[in-house]
Structure formats: structure tokens, C-alpha cells
Design a protein that fits this description.
This protein has 4 helices and 33 strands. 7% of the residues lie in helices and 34% in strands. The strands form 8 sheets. Strands 3, 8, 9, 12, 19, 20, 21 and 23 form an 8-stranded antiparallel β-sheet that branches. Strands 4, 10, 11, 13, 14, 16, 17 and 22 form an 8-stranded antiparallel β-sheet that branches. The longest helix has 16 residues, at 17-32.
């Protein structure tokens, strides 16, 4: 896979060296006065109201004890800027330098061309619907509707058991302390035949840990999972307006122990995020949660545990089982805001990810591959690596579960230590670093021996490199959440980032635009032939306002917003 795009924002001009030097010096002087991430610091960050300060700011913040703590977190993603170019992968708008994304479904039958088939989905795209196909079914939206961007993912289960899982590539360490995991999601459900969210922590960078539901058998070697579909809350009726933590599952060397909960209910509603925190040490876990509007935040459950690990990987999941059986539709969507954790900043793993196969099947696509498969990982950086893994999902059709894997010509056999046939499982193989090479590495995966029914399908294939704790690493910093601009009919206070459900949706018909200078590079707002500080200043001064091309509206949607800012930054110096 390609390395993350390290393209700088400022390029050397071949002409007018003196003028360019003055411009660059001025730019650096200005940037040096900005908080943390330079350019982004000048965006209009909304001031916290008294209510926001009391309540812990907004659903887009990462929080500790429901108090906004984004800058204090070891990791926090507010999903402000979608990934572009080489940073996109299986997770669509999620950045592959921070996330590894996996999809699994029980819709698999290689003899009929079904290799982990995901149909097209009529997804809720913030406040409208769009027909999407993987990998575009994992996406950011918000700014189009004058609300902050957030992450959404959706799928059509087509009567099957389906799940997706987003793993943070940066390890979470809670050794000798109580760590805090913070997340915000509209955690609605109608029970086990609907949709529900889950959160998992595993000691290895495995793909998609999960319970033994139809078509999946994703037990981690060591881990803990939080299953959030305790909807009846002690009654006999699932109303879709309440939910609770049903249980947590603790795994020690593949052995499962389930810990029941008190079914302490919280209210839910689609697109109304609950705030949750998991406070975890090796011996005690506390599960905290709010109601659908962020209020009534309190401790819901406490568990005594004895975890066999104190460092691991976080997975945020959407699970769904033939949702039309208990709900109105087979299509499910969750809105995720502000996911993160506190603690020491551990360097993120370098993950080199095989794209989904995306071969057409009916209205949708297959995402898995058949075996044998050969793939070349390009631009591999082995500096400061202490451990390497080959991590993937496998679907074995019998209980004799083994694969042959070849690393740059050297072949090994891996046998699944927890076999179960006719299920998705996972493989996380520690690799010999001496067999890996800087730059290109050829990996081949094949079914061991003869194939029963069909050779083993595989999916979600990563080369995962774990770095030394002291390896050079730059902590990801979110750009400030931009202040959104009210439009006619918007009744909430300006810049609160919340659009009431009763507010009419504005017309979303962008007009084509090439900036104010159609023959020049996109971003040359003042038509001087360069994209420089003068253009930057114009855009920033109009940021968050209605405008035209001469005021910084580069994509023709009638607003000067983060899309225009991203375009200008990408072309700065041209």
C-alpha cells in the first residue's frame, strides 16, 4: 500500500525568489502564533456557552467525566476532515493512518459468487438519504447541513448477520492506572434482531472481534467486549427508545466469561448521540453513559475483573442481524462523534492495508478474496519496529483450519488455535522481522492442503507493524470544529452546531465553480496567479459565512467552509 501522503503545504516557487521568501517567512511567523496545528488554529472556533461548559461542551468532543478533554486525550478523532487520496481505504472517509476497517457478513457462498457480499444501501446521509456501496458506506457528513462533520456507517443486512468494525491503530495503555475510553453514538436498538453498537478491547491488532453469532466466530485470544443491546431494560417490550449494556464478555486465552449487567437503562433516539465512557483498570471496569441528549450522565455498571493484559486496541462496531424481523427495515445506520482515549501517547502501528476486492455482485459488491492470493505491500518502513503481524479474517468450511502464508518467498503454515467450521474467524500471525524488507514485500496466502467445499475466502488483510514506545511519533491533533452558519429557518442559537429536527433542509444543489480566476489554479481568489497568503487571508476572514468565489467559496455551494479551506491548503504555493 502507499505510504500516507506527506505532501507539504508550501512549495518553492521557481520565480520571484525574494517575494516568495518574504511570503514564506510571513506565513511561518503567522503559523507560529497559532495553537498546535498552525493553519487550522485560525478557523472560527465556537465559544463554549455557559451551558456547554457545565454539560461538557458538545457531542463532538472527547470527554473525561463528561467534561471536554479533547486536547488531553492520547487519541481523539472528531471526524472533521475526511480522508482523501492514498489515505482512504476500506473505511472510506476514515484515515488509514489512524484506523483499520473491517466488514463481515454471513452472506458468503463462493460457489455462487458470494465473497462477503454487501448490497447497496439506502443510507441515512445526515439528514437526507443516499444509495451507497462499499467502501463509500463509511463516510463523514455534517457541513453540508450546517452542522459539524461526524462519522457515519451503514449497511443493508439483506436478512443476514452483518457487522463492521473500526480499529484504532494507536494502542491504548492502562497499565497501573484507570484508563478512560470516550465515545458518542446514537445507541438505539430494538434488540437482537435489529442493530446495536459494540466496543471491544483486544491485546492484539486483530480484525473484528465479535461474539459467536451466525456466520461469525471472532473470539479474541485476550480481550473484553461491551454488548449494547439490552433494550427491554427488564421489561418484555423493545420500544426502540431505550437501551442498556446487556453484558460484557471477557476472554482469557480464548476462554469466554460473561458478566451480567444491571440493565441500567438510558434513552436513545436515532441521530441523538449518547455519551459513553468506559473507565478500565486491570481489576475494575466501570461503564458510564448518558441519555440521548447527553444529560443524565452517570455510572451504569461496575464489574470486578482480572484482565490478562493492560495494553490493547480499541474496536468500535455496528452489529446487525436480519433487522427487518423486529424493525422496519434491513438498513441500519449509526452516527459516531468524538471517539478517543486518555493515557500515555503510544506510537500508532504502521498498517499497510489490502483494499477490499470490490467485485460487483448484484446491486452491491464482494469485499473478500478467494485463495490463493498474492499481494505486494509497497513503501514499507521498518524503522523502529518491534513486532510485525499479518492480520486478516478467514472463512473455513470445516474444522481443519490452516493456511499457508509466504513472506518474500519463505512459506509457513498457521493452524487456527480456536477452530470452528463454516464461520468467519480471524488470524493474527506474529511475523519474523528478518523475513520482511524495506519498501516492497510480497505476501501470498493459500488454503493448506485440499479445499473442502471451497478454498478459504479471506478479507480485511493488514500488515501491522508495532513500533517501539520511544519511536518518533506525532500525536494527531484535530483541527478546531468550525463554527457553522445559520440559514433561514434555523432556529437554534448561532454556531451551536445543532440543527433541530424541525428545521427545513436547505437546497443542496452546488453550482460548478473554478474560483474567481477560471484559468488559474483553484484557490487563486485574488487572481494574482499564485495561491498564497493573500488568498488564505481572504478565505479565513469569510470562513463560516455565505459567499461567492471572490470571497473564498471554491466549490460553489454558497458557503465559505471547510471544503474550500481544504482545497486552498492542498493547492497552497502553486
Amino acid at each position: 500500500m502507499n505510504k500516507p501522503n506527506q505532501k507539504g503545504l508550501i512549495h518553492t516557487f521557481p520565480l520571484l525568489i525574494v517575494v516568495a521568501a518574504v511570503g514564506v517567512i510571513s506565513f511561518l511567523l503567522i503559523s507560529s502564533t497559532l495553537p498546535l496545528n498552525g493553519l487550522f488554529g485560525v478557523l472560527n472556533q465556537k465559544p463554549a456557552s455557559q451551558a456547554q461548559m457545565m454539560m461538557g461542551a458538545t457531542k463532538d468532543d472527547c470527554k473525561i467525566n463528561n467534561i471536554a478533554s479533547t486536547e488531553m486525550m492520547a487519541f481523539c478523532d472528531q471526524f472533521i476532515m475526511p480522508a482523501t487520496g492514498a489515505q482512504r481505504g476500506r473505511g472510506g472517509d476514515l484515515d488509514i493512518s489512524r484506523w483499520s476497517f473491517a466488514r463481515l457478513t454471513s452472506d458468503i457462498n463462493p460457489t455462487q459468487g458470494a465473497f462477503n457480499t454487501f448490497p447497496a444501501v439506502n443510507a441515512q446521509f445526515c439528514r437526507i438519504n443516499k444509495t451507497l456501496v462499499a467502501d463509500n458506506d463509511s463516510f463523514f457528513c455534517g457541513l453540508e447541513f450546517n452542522e459539524p462533520n461526524h462519522w457515519m456507517e451503514a449497511f443493508n443486512d439483506n436478512g443476514n448477520y452483518v457487522m463492521d468494525s473500526a480499529r484504532i491503530t494507536q494502542p491504548f495503555d492502562f497499565s497501573g492506572r484507570t484508563g478512560v475510553i470516550s465515545f458518542n453514538v446514537d445507541a438505539h436498538t430494538l434488540g437482537e434482531h435489529d442493530i446495536w453498537p459494540e466496543v471491544w478491547i483486544t491485546d492484539e491488532p486483530m480484525q473484528a472481534p465479535h461474539l459467536d453469532h451466525p456466520g461469525t466466530h471472532q473470539f479474541p485470544k485476550n480481550g473484553v467486549g461491551f454488548i449494547m443491546n439490552g433494550a427491554p431494560c427488564g421489561s418484555t417490550t423493545f420500544d426502540g427508545k431505550h437501551n442498556a449494556l446487556r453484558n460484557i464478555s471477557v476472554f482469557k486465552n480464548y476462554v469466554q466469561s460473561d458478566l451480567g449487567t444491571s440493565f441500567n437503562c438510558f434513552t436513545t433516539e436515532p441521530d441523538m448521540a449518547n455519551h459513553f465512557e468506559i473507565h478500565i483498570s486491570q481489576n475494575i471496569i466501570e461503564f458510564w453513559g448518558s441519555d440521548k441528549d447527553g444529560t443524565n450522565f452517570k455510572k451504569r455498571d461496575t464489574f470486578n475483573v482480572n484482565l490478562p493484559f493492560t495494553r490493547g486496541y480499541l474496536h468500535f462496531q455496528h452489529a446487525q442481524y436480519n433487522a427487518a424481523k423486529d424493525g422496519p427495515t434491513n438498513t441500519g445506520t449509526f452516527h459516531w462523534h468524538g471517539l478517543g482515549f486518555d493515557g500515555p501517547v503510544i506510537p500508532a502501528d504502521r498498517t499497510y492495508q489490502v483494499p477490499d476486492s470490490l467485485t460487483k455482485n448484484g446491486t452491491g459488491v464482494n469485499t473478500a478474496y478467494g485463495t490463493p492470493l498474492s499481494y505486494t505491500y509497497n513503501n514499507v518502513n521498518l524503522s523502529n519496529v518491534k513486532q510485525a503481524y499479518l492480520s486478516l479474517n478467514t472463512y473455513f468450511f470445516d474444522n481443519t483450519q490452516a493456511i499457508d502464508y509466504t513472506i518474500n518467498g519463505t512459506t509457513h503454515t498457521y493452524t487456527n488455535p480456536a477452530p470452528t467450521g463454516w464461520q468467519w474467524g480471524y488470524v493474527t500471525i506474529p511475523l519474523n522481522l528478518a523475513e520482511l524488507k524495506t519498501e516492497s514485500n510480497v505476501v501470498k496466502i493459500a488454503t493448506t492442503g485440499s479445499c473442502h467445499f471451497s478454498c478459504t475466502p479471506i478479507a480485511n488483510i493488514d500488515l501491522d507493524l508495532v513500533l517501539n514506545d520511544n519511536a518518533p511519533f506525532t500525536k494527531f491533533v484535530n483541527p478546531p470544529v468550525p463554527c457553522v452558519t445559520p440559514y433561514p429557518g434555523y432556529t437554534a442559537a448561532p454556531c451551536d452546531g445543532v440543527m433541530p429536527p424541525s428545521t427545513p433542509i436547505p437546497s443542496m444543489t452546488p453550482m460548478p465553480s473554478m474560483g474567481s480566476c477560471p484559468k488559474g489554479p483553484l484557490g487563486d481568489i485574488n487572481c494574482d496567479g499564485f495561491i498564497n497568503l493573500f488568498d488564505y487571508s481572504t478565505l479565513v476572514s469569510n470562513f463560516g459565512k455565505p459567499g461567492n468565489a471572490s470571497q473564498g467559496d471554491l466549490n460553489g455551494d454558497g458557503l465559505v467552509n471547510l471544503f474550500d479551506y481544504s482545497t486552498l491548503v492542498s493547492n497552497f504555493g502553486k
